[in-house]
């Protein structure tokens, strides 16, 4: 907990979870996509679906997708800005009985052709978590430089990745490993204290057993 | 465990001397977050600037998306300026400030969550009129915000500052307790008096439910900011007069957490209990979402 969670954040109202958190979801998904968003199909669930319109959740997510921060006074008018930029978007409302009450699914296409299918939740006080990217179930805040790796579930893969990070003097803040089944594929989520460079990412991608590596930097 | 986890710990900080309590809160939290004291001060100054800007930017013609909120702070201002009020000018400025900020938040303006967006009106409502009345320098206001944040962290770590977790007592109640401690600081009170003010403010708000009409941060949230600000004045005056809280502040915070746990989910930001369940609120809800 940070002192500025008590006096702050500076944000556009009315709700830290439904407005500020929604902007941060947009921002995080933009970072995951890794380029300007061209098209966004968004589904809101639970309380996001029930009270989102009154809290500006929809406008807040669009604002975040365009790179606006939670205290940007253009957040309430983000639809107009999206029209100016030619960002196409749609909203739908869904049911997710087992899910977190404040869940959003974003299916994104970038201007250079990247795509991403992401599930994110607003967990309170403006803090968020990414819960799924594509078919990878995971859980991280997207507030720090984060490396997401899909790999074959074989001995030594985790050690190889951490060795490369250590050789490049990158300090790991958190490290999660999940797998679907024994000997199948696994997902590593590694939050780091400092940004990673392209050379390091190339080294990691060339390691044996690495199927895919997604890197999310801070803006 | 959070950096500040008990009111007794903050009293010990103050008793051991050296730097003043607000400065110790600043230094310890900056170190914990890996920033310099200057960066922390810059951030707190930005928060104060954002509070002042939001207060100044109030537009009486603004309405919230639902149409339930807007214009009331201006009505209140005209009433107090007419000289016919019961409480007089200073209290008038406090009440108007709380309503202005609550309305700004509901109308999607830029505000400072303190500790939450729904409770953003309480701290500025008491601190800004106090500073105007007493000619308080800006540095002292910044110090008061560190006091408020330090005590707020104790409430957040021992109990909660989330309406969904513990009801409105954790939002307006926490804001009111933070504001009471900050007021005692500004008026030259001791750390023990800050603890007493915090305890009294929280006790007076204990059990307050979170019952937003149609789930929106509008009704009754905006007016509760006014109540939270008045309660902060009440608690600070009692503590400064030397009135003690018979229950220690840490035990009051623990009791607040326990009350939050006992509260039905209907009363914790679901918009299904309290005034949100009233026939008028239900009619509003179906009209609003049906439209």
Overall morphology of chain B: globular
Q: How do the strands of the widest beta sheet of chain A line up side by side? A: 3-2-4-5-6-7
Q: Can you count the beta strands of chain B?
A: 1
Describe the main β-sheet of chain B briefly: none
In terms of DSSP E residues, the strand content of chain B is under 5%
Classification by helices and strands of chain B: mainly alpha
Please state the average pLDDT score of chain A. Answer: 92
Q: CATH class of the largest domain in chain A, please?
A: Alpha Beta
What is the overall number of helices of chain A? 6
Tally of structural domains of chain B: 1
Question: What's the CATH topology label of the largest domain in chain A?
Answer: 60s Ribosomal Protein L30, Chain: A
CATH superfamily of the largest domain in chain A, called what? D-3-phosphoglycerate dehydrogenase, domain 3
The CATH level-2 architecture of the largest domain in chain A is identified as: 2-Layer Sandwich
In short:
Chain A is an alpha+beta fold and 219 residues long.
Question: Would you mind describing this structure in some detail?
Answer:
The complex is a heterodimer of chains A (219) and B (291). Helices cover 29% and strands 37% of the residues of chain A. By secondary structure, chain A is an alpha+beta fold. Chain A folds into two domains: 3-140, D-3-phosphoglycerate dehydrogenase, domain 3 (60s Ribosomal Protein L30, Chain: A); 146-216, Alpha-Beta Plaits (2-Layer Sandwich), CATH 3.30.70. In chain A, strands 3-2-4-5-6-7 form a six-stranded mixed sheet. Chain B has one domain: 2-methylcitrate dehydratase PrpD (Orthogonal Bundle). Chain B has helices spanning 7-15, 21-33, 37-56, 72-81, 89-106, 122-134, 138-158, 163-166, 172-186, 191-205, 221-240, 249-262, 279-290, and one strand spanning 110-112. In chain B, helix 3 packs across helix 7, helix 6 packs parallel to helix 9 and helix 9 (172-186) runs parallel beside helix 11. Chain B is globular and about 60 Å long. Chain B is built from 13 helices and one strand.
């Amino acid at each position: 907990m940070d002192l500025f969670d008590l006096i702050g954040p500076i944000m556009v109202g009315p709700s830290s979870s439904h407005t500020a958190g929604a902007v941060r979801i947009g921002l995080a998904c933009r970072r995951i996509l890794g380029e300007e968003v061209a098209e966004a199909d968004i589904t809101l669930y639970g309380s996001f679906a029930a009270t989102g319109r009154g809290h500006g959740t929809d406008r807040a997510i669009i604002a975040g997708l365009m790179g606006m921060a939670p205290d940007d006074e253009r957040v309430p008018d983000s639809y107009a800005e999206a029209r100016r930029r030619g960002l196409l978007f749609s909203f739908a409302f869904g049911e997710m009985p087992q899910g977190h009450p404040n869940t959003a699914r974003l299916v994104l296409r970038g201007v250079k052709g990247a795509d991403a299918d992401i599930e994110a939740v607003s967990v309170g006080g403006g803090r968020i978590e990414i819960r799924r990217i594509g078919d990878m179930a995971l859980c991280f805040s997207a507030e720090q430089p984060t490396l997401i790796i899909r790999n074959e579930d074989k001995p030594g893969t985790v050690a190889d990745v951490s060795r490369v990070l250590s050789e490049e003097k990158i300090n790991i803040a958190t490290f999660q490993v999940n797998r679907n089944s024994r000997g199948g594929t696994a997902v590593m989520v590694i939050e780091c204290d400092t940004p990673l460079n392209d050379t390091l990412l190339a080294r990691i991608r060339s390691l044996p057993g690495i199927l895919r590596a997604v890197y999310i930097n801070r803006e | 465990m959070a950096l500040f986890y008990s009111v007794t710990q903050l009293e010990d900080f103050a008793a051991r001397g050296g730097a003043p309590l607000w400065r110790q809160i600043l230094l310890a939290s900056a170190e914990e977050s890996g920033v310099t004291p200057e960066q922390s001060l810059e951030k707190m100054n930005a928060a104060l600037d954002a509070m002042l800007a939001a207060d100044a930017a109030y537009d009486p013609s603004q309405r919230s998306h639902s149409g339930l909120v807007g214009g009331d702070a201006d009505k209140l201002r005209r009433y107090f300026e007419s000289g016919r009020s019961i409480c007089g000018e200073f209290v008038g400025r406090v009440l108007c400030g709380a309503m202005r900020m609550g309305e700004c938040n509901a109308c999607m303006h830029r505000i400072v969550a303190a500790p939450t967006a729904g409770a953003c009106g309480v701290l500025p409502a008491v601190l800004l009129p106090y500073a105007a009345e007493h000619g308080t320098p800006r540095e002292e206001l910044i110090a008061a915000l560190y006091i408020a944040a330090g005590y707020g962290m104790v409430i957040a770590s021992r109990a909660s500052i989330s309406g969904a977790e513990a009801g409105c007592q954790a939002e307006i109640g926490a804001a009111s307790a933070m504001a009471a401690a900050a007021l005692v600081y500004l008026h030259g009170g001791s750390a023990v008096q800050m603890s007493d003010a915090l305890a009294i403010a929280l006790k007076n708000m204990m059990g307050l439910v979170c019952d937003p009409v149609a789930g929106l941060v509008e009704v009754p949230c905006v007016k509760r900011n006014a109540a939270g600000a008045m309660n902060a004045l009440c608690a600070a005056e009692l503590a400064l007069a030397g009135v003690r809280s018979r229950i220690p502040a840490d035990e009051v915070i623990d009791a607040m957490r326990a009350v939050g746990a006992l509260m039905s989910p209907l009363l914790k930001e679901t918009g299904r209990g309290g005034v949100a369940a009233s026939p008028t609120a239900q009619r509003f809800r179906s009209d609003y979402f049906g439209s």
